[in-house]
Structure formats: structure tokens, C-alpha cells
Amino acid sequence: MLSRRIIPCLDVRDGKVVKGVRFRDHVVMGEIVDLALRYRDEGADELVFYDITASPEGRSVDRGWVERVASVIDIPFCVAGGIRSVDEARAVLHAGADKISVNSPALERPDLIDELAAAFGVQCVVVGIDSLRDADGEWHVRQYTGDPSRTQALPRRTLDWMVEAQQRGAGEIVLNCMGSDGVRQGYDLEQLAAVRKFCLVPLIASGGAGAPEHFRDAFLTADVDGALAASVFHSGAIAIPSLKQSLDAWGVAVRT
Amino acid sequence: MSVVLVDAGGTNIGSVRYALQRLGVEASLTSDADAIRTADKVILPGVGAAGPGMARLRELGLVELMRSLTQPVLGVCLGMQLLCERSEEGDTECLSLIPATVSRFSEQPGLRVPHMGWNRLQRQREHPLLDGLVDGDWAYFVHSYAVPAGDYALAVTDFGGAFSSVIARGNFHGMQFHPERSAKVGARLLKNFLEL
């Protein structure tokens, strides 16, 4: 039986891991390779690295640290940040990343998803979606969330974009629920469950983890395949080995 | 010991190479027929689709060479699928070294394809490739097509039914998961291969 995945997310800025609250006010959490190794040793199932400033600054991800991570890490990892072409994606994959994740550039040019899937197969292609509920009561997509001054609210509905991304060749969806991000009050179960209904590929929850119960609810209530979290892992508030023990006791299939 | 990675265009070549480095082995990446023929161990990594994978081997003139190898050969992920007779993916004729047809996971409620994540290995037969592997050990998978469970399965994995996660026939071996990304279990299986 396939296990549910626990995925620490490392936001990378200027070669360091940083964390902000509600995507703002970033503070340095540590060195990339040190944190990657720590999570590998603690039993993380996968790692995600977001170069959070690459997309707003219009540049691609720095390959140097991707190679350093790939050479020491023996669990899968995904790299995101400003990948806007097949060539840039190839460079990151050849540097040793297992998957690449696209977000703002796919919104600029949705054909990018088709091109990546055709070049590398859908299993390499993750589409990240930053989503927030607006005054009309609907969830809508946000773009360029790495830079608050450039963040844009798009008219696209989150559900429509998720379905389109999947049809175009996304092999996995990461749903960043911005309304719950950074405040540790739990994942946005309502939104995740709504997206799950139409999401036929693996779905990863992001934004809001503060306690082991939040992971349980994301897996058992919203039926997501993986749960991503950052600050609770970086700060040591939740240790992955004890999180997995709790999940196991609650009947969630986890790799132990 | 000389180990070569056949450069069939897969994107996981770097990761496999690093995994071998962690085991103290410097593998060379090559599409040169002589280098492959004379290597002690040959690894065919692969990420992508069966059609382009076989087309690349054909372009490089390596199809007959791969079929003629007598040293231990390991196909990883797509590399394992290419060792079989055919793949339903693009209706592709493969290397025919292991009598099996690669098929897509069937649609089932709650079964999300690609099969992506950690799943358990269940031993089917004794084989030195599985030394130290405990029934139920976890490995990391990412794929939409699979080799059905059958006579050549050394280990199987359950995903809407059992499929072959490790296969062997003579000197040809395959792992559907990514040993280079399967933590200690993967490192042990790679080490076992190097010691065959």
C-alpha cells in the first residue's frame, strides 16, 4: 500500500532556507544542505525546495545548490522557482532533481505544462497553485506570491486551473492555501476536499500545519496524498519521527 | 570494477551516479558500444516514455549490443521496462530480454496514477540481489506503467493489485522503483547489484 508522504518544504532565498509568515517577512532558517540532511535523517519522505524569489525576479533557479543536494540526499526532491522553459527544467532535472514544480510561469503560459510533460513525462511535472478565497466566496489563483509587492490576484478559479493543469499534463498538484499559511491553525480542509474531488493525480496539501492532528485531518478528511509543511519542522515544533508514530496510531499509512 | 551508466537520455542519470558515488563507485556515463561491452556492470537508468527511450537506444546503435551483454545488467524504472518484450506505452517494441509486457495501471477508484511515493516490497524468490531486504521494506516509486507480477518477479508491490517491483532473468535485472532515491533500502539493493 502506498504511504502518505510527509514533505518538509524549504523556501530558498539567496542560497539559504528562509521562512516568512503569510508569505512575507522572511527570516533565515539555515543552510540548504544541512537542513536537507537533517530531514532525510528524521525520515522525511520527500523534500521540496522553492526558490521563492526566482519567479518574481524573472530568473531561473540556481543549479549549484541543486547539485549539492542531489549528491548527498537519497530521498526524492522537487525544485520550484522560475522554471519557464523545457531547457531550464532539463538543467534542474539533470542537476539531480527528481521533479520540477511550476507555478507563476505556467499561469503566464499554460502551454509550458504540456511541453514539460511531453519532454520528461507527467511524473516529473508538478504544478503548484497558490490559492485564496475572495469576497465572492470562490477560491482564486494568485501569481508571483514570492514577492508581496508583485503578487497578483487572478480572475481564474482555483478549481478550473487545477483541472486544466491536470489535463495539460501535471503529474501532481501542490495546493498552497494562502489563507491558512503560516498561522498553524490547520490545513484548509474545505478547500483541499473540494479540489480532491476533481484531482485524479497525487494532491499535496500546503499551508497551515501546526499540530500532528492537522496532518491526520488532511490525510483522513481531505484524502490528500502528501502534506507539506515548513516552519513547524524548521523550528522543531513537530518532530517527524513522532509525527509518523502518531499518524500510524491513527491508522494513516506512513513509511516508518 | 568498472560500472557504466548507459546514456539513454533519462533525467535520473545524475542521481544514479551520485548514489553509486555514495557507495564508493565512480560510474561513467556513456553511449559508447565498446565501453558498455567491456564494463563489469551495466546500468540502464531511465525516466520518460518507452517510445523515446527505445528510439534513443536505436539511434545510438545499442539495441543489439544491449541484447548481447553477458555481465550483470540493471534497468532502473523505465530502464527495467525497456528490458521487457513490449510496452503498451506508445505500443513500443522493447529489448525482449525478459518475457513480459508492460501495461498501464488500470483506472480504479482512489488509485491515483502516476503511482508516486513510497510503497512496500514483498519478496517472491531468493536472489542475491535481495540480500538484506526485509519483507515490507519501503522503496520510492514514480511511474504510470508497470510489469505485471509473474515468473520473473523477485519482489512485488501492491498498487491496485500486485506488480513486479524487482525482476531478474539470467544476467538481466530490473528495479521499478528508484534505488537512488530509496534511502538505506535502495543503497543496499544497489550495493547488492554491484556485488553480483
UniProtKB/TrEMBL annotation, chain A:
Location(s), subcellular: Cytoplasm
Pathway annotation: Amino-acid biosynthesis; L-histidine biosynthesis; L-histidine from 5-phospho-alpha-D-ribose 1-diphosphate: step 5/9
Gene3D superfamilies noted in UniProt: Aldolase class I
Enzymatic reactions: 5-[(5-phospho-1-deoxy-D-ribulos-1-ylimino)methylamino]-1-(5-phospho-beta-D-ribosyl)imidazole-4-carboxamide + L-glutamine = D-erythro-1-(imidazol-4-yl)glycerol 3-phosphate + 5-amino-1-(5-phospho-beta-D-ribosyl)imidazole-4-carboxamide + L-glutamate + H(+)
Gene: hisF
PANTHER family noted in UniProt: IMIDAZOLE GLYCEROL PHOSPHATE SYNTHASE HISHF, IMIDAZOLE GLYCEROL PHOSPHATE SYNTHASE SUBUNIT HISF/H IGP SYNTHASE SUBUNIT HISF/H
Keywords for the protein's UniProt record, in alphabetical order: Amino-acid biosynthesis, Cytoplasm, Histidine biosynthesis, Lyase
Cited InterPro entries: Aldolase_TIM, His_biosynth, HisF, IGPS_HisA/HisF, RibuloseP-bd_barrel
Active site (catalytic residues): 11, 130
Source species of the chain: Dyella japonica DSM 16301
Presence of the UniProt keyword Ribosomal protein in the record: no
Protein name (database record): Imidazole glycerol phosphate synthase subunit HisF
Enzyme class: lyase
Role this protein plays: IGPS catalyzes the conversion of PRFAR and glutamine to IGP, AICAR and glutamate. The HisF subunit catalyzes the cyclization activity that produces IGP and AICAR from PRFAR using the ammonia provided by the HisH subunit.
Primary site of residence: cytoplasm
Family: Belongs to the HisA/HisF family.
Subunit details: Heterodimer of HisH and HisF.
One example GO MF annotation: imidazoleglycerol-phosphate synthase activity
CDD domains found in the cross-reference section: HisF
Keyword Cytoplasm in record: yes
Entry's transmembrane regions: none
Enzyme Commission identifier(s): 4.3.2.10
Automatic annotation (TrEMBL), chain B:
GO biological process: L-histidine biosynthetic process
Reaction catalyzed: L-glutamine + H2O = L-glutamate + NH4(+); 5-[(5-phospho-1-deoxy-D-ribulos-1-ylimino)methylamino]-1-(5-phospho-beta-D-ribosyl)imidazole-4-carboxamide + L-glutamine = D-erythro-1-(imidazol-4-yl)glycerol 3-phosphate + 5-amino-1-(5-phospho-beta-D-ribosyl)imidazole-4-carboxamide + L-glutamate + H(+)
Subcellular location: Cytoplasm
The protein's annotated pathway: Amino-acid biosynthesis; L-histidine biosynthesis; L-histidine from 5-phospho-alpha-D-ribose 1-diphosphate: step 5/9
Pfam short name (any one): GATase
The organism's place on the tree of life at top rank: Bacteria
GO MF assignments: glutaminase activity; imidazoleglycerol-phosphate synthase activity; lyase activity
Gene3D superfamilies: 3.40.50.880
GO CC annotations on file: cytoplasm
Active-site annotation: 77 (nucleophile), 178, 180
Keyword annotations of the record: Amino-acid biosynthesis, Cytoplasm, Glutamine amidotransferase, Glycosyltransferase, Histidine biosynthesis, Hydrolase, Lyase, Transferase
Domain Glutamine amidotransferase: 4-194
Principal subcellular localization: cytoplasm
EC id: 4.3.2.10, 3.5.1.2
Transmembrane intervals: none
CDD domains, A to Z: GATase1_IGP_Synthase
Quaternary context: Heterodimer of HisH and HisF.
Function description: IGPS catalyzes the conversion of PRFAR and glutamine to IGP, AICAR and glutamate. The HisH subunit catalyzes the hydrolysis of glutamine to glutamate and ammonia as part of the synthesis of IGP and AICAR. The resulting ammonia molecule is channeled to the active site of HisF.
Protein name stated in the entry: Imidazole glycerol phosphate synthase subunit HisH
